[in-house]
Amino acid sequence: MKTNGFIDKKISRHKTLPEVIAERLKQAIINGELKGGQQLKQDEIAKRFNASMIPVREALRILEVQGLVKLYPNKGAIVRELSVEEVEEIFDIRIMLEKGALKFAIDNLDHKEMEYGEYILKKMDVLVEEEHLSQLNFQFHNILYGASQKNILLELISDMHIKLERYMRIYLLNMGYHQTSQEEHYKMLEACKNKNKSLAIEILVQHMENAKQSLVIFLKSREN
In what residue span(s) does the HTH gntR-type domain sit (predicted)? Predict the structure, then answer.
């Protein structure tokens, strides 16, 4: 349940207060409730969470590391604007990382992981307008990459996902590319089932290039 616009005060017992504040603000940014260029007033956030300024500042530093806000001396925190340059760079990094992860993973993927990947895709088929779609999208990719057993590489991929998530929600929902993305996912999964490493990687790269170019065109059109 939301209160005061974008803050849900239900606090997880498994997270610190700064982590909870950061998570609530992150979801508000990704959902578009907090817009690019919007200032995040620390005193208002502290009041809504009944918290001191210290955990609020820690939360904003977490969001800065995640690439969602920018901290300025004497100005505070500003939600980062969506940009063509950022989406291009993040996708280029993702392609390099995820090609490697999939290459390491394919030989280790077993029947159970393939079945779970297909289960996630079927869930996505019926979640056309759900905000959790981008999270399931990453979960599907992560199922494939998890078999690589390269923990540092998986952490880097996860970091890129956080930086890209609000772009992916635009791509999958606002721009209506969910069905196209799903078709590419099923082809990738089939190539993995057949242990066709080169084809799976080729589909993966094209899958991300398609998303990147579509987002670049969309963002440029908003600038005009």
Answer: 15-82
